[in-house]
TrEMBL record:
<dbReference type="Pfam" id="PF00078">
    <property type="entry name" value="RVT_1"/>
</dbReference>
<dbReference type="InterPro" id="IPR000477">
    <property type="entry name" value="RT_dom"/>
</dbReference>
<dbReference type="GO" id="GO:0071897">
    <property type="term" value="P:DNA biosynthetic process"/>
</dbReference>
<protein>
    <recommendedName>
        <fullName>Reverse transcriptase domain-containing protein</fullName>
    </recommendedName>
</protein>
<dbReference type="InterPro" id="IPR043502">
    <property type="entry name" value="DNA/RNA_pol_sf"/>
</dbReference>
<feature type="domain" description="Reverse transcriptase">
    <location>
        <begin position="1"/>
        <end position="219"/>
    </location>
</feature>
Length: 415
């Protein structure tokens, strides 16, 4: 079934969940790029972050079967899926007393490979209810809408109309939108004063909030990332303490395993978005604390050479790595100078830097990922993803950059 959907390109391009080659990073980048595009046009961007109550449990079997048939799943394959969903019984067990069984005509089995994919099919037609001038980002049951609007409008009639269609789709498909947990953010540049007017959602007024969590990342209305980094620094301090305690009981190799599985995975998540923020150095502090704990180093010992020796990426190096990897995986989205003109210059193979009105946008991943990728040698840019990953990581590990500028200003040859 998966091969059928992939072969015929049936899954909507705005669905990032449980699809090969796509991740939460891709979903987050897509959402933030839409905000930047609005800012570049001197517009505001309204973000509606929908909360669906028990979405997987609300999938109506009959509706799902109709949609599967619509997408070309027929005959034996459809009968098999119908059998998979049918004749399921639920019971309640309290203190050893079990209730009579009740048939289930809703929900897809969770904990299975098939369950999430069936949900993707179920929600696949939702984006068509959002007009082309509005944007939607889907990650399984996480549904987010971006509306680009004129700055500080007193009313959002166009937005309200689009939201009413989305609410109608949810109702028609038996999905429950939790209005109280659904959030509205008005994304505006720091110099713009926010007008506190809301939008209508299911007959209720939705008032704007200053921040919300999107796929594990705290997004604020100014996209300054301070709130996310503050929370992340606290989590990493706890993780560094855990690494220290583990090291007291085990050897270096075990402590390294704990570091990568616990500390480094938390530190790396979403760094593509927030890694160039003004307060990012508060993340480097607990990282150095964790490294000192693993190798029993005192507070006065410099770690600059140690990072190179132990081949662990610093925060800055991890940011560079995530940026250039993102570009390399999505290189078809980035035009080169030679695509724009036929003049034979030495920079013809470099990626085109987007012309931006705002420095905020240029300094974000929107421009930074291109700036970093253009620093790579041309021969490195031409290799496969697997080889590219190995070459870049080896370079970053042996250099141990303490800042992004360290990487940009490094002119030593690549081996």
């Amino acid at each position: 079934m998966l091969s059928h959907f992939n072969a015929h390109n049936l899954l909507h391009k705005k669905q990032f969940g449980f699809t090969k080659g796509r991740s939460t990073a891709d979903a987050s980048v897509d959402l933030i790029k839409n905000v930047f595009e609005a800012w570049e046009r001197s517009q505001d961007a309204l973000g509606i972050f929908c909360d669906l109550s028990k979405a997987f449990d609300c999938v109506h079997h009959e509706t799902l079967i109709r949609k599967l048939h619509h997408y070309g799943i027929r005959n034996k394959a459809l009968n098999l899926l119908n059998s998979y969903l049918s004749n399921r019984i639920q019971r309640v067990d309290v203190n050893g007393k079990r209730s009579p069984g009740a048939p289930l005509d809703m929900g897809v089995p969770q904990g299975s490979v098939l369950g999430p994919f069936l949900f993707l099919i179920y929600i696949n037609d939702l984006p068509f209810f959002v007009q082309d001038k509005h944007e939607i980002v889907l990650f399984a049951d996480d549904t987010s809408l971006i509306f680009k609007v004129k700055r500080n409008l007193p009313m959002y009639d166009d937005v309200n109309d689009a939201l009413s269609k989305v609410v109608y789709w949810f109702d028609s498909n038996n999905l429950l939108l939790n209005n109280k947990k659904t959030k509205l953010i008005k994304f505006t540049t720091p110099s713009i004063k926010l007008v506190d007017n809301g939008v209508e959602l299911g007959g209720e007024m939705l008032k704007p909030v200053k921040s919300t969590k999107f796929l594990g990342i705290i997004i604020d209305s100014k996209l300054q990332w301070d709130l996310h980094i503050e929370g992340l620094a606290s989590r990493l301090s706890s993780a560094a303490f855990a690494v220290k305690k583990i090291r007291l009981l085990t050897d270096v190799d075990t402590a390294r395993v704990v570091y990568f599985s616990y500390f480094h995975s938390i530190m790396s998540y979403g760094i593509l978005l927030w890694g160039n923020a003004a307060t990012v150095n508060t993340i480097f502090v607990p990282q150095k604390r964790a490294i000192r704990a693993i190798y029993s180093l005192g507070p006065r010992v410099s770690l600059r050479d140690k990072f190179k020796e132990i081949k662990i990426l610093t925060v800055a190096s991890q940011y560079v790595y995530e940026n250039v990897m993102y570009v390399h995986k999505n290189i078809h989205e980035f035009p080169r100078n030679c695509d724009m003109h036929s003049i034979n210059t030495r920079n013809k193979h470099k990626l085109v830097m987007p012309v931006t009105r705002l420095r905020r946008v240029s300094n974000s991943f929107y421009g930074q990922c291109i700036r970093l990728y253009n620093r790579l040698p041309e021969n490195v840019q031409k290799v496969s993803i697997a080889k590219f990953k190995k070459i870049v990581k080896e370079r970053l590990c042996t250099k141990g950059y303490y800042s992004i500028n360290d990487f940009l200003e490094d002119s030593t040859p690549w081996e």
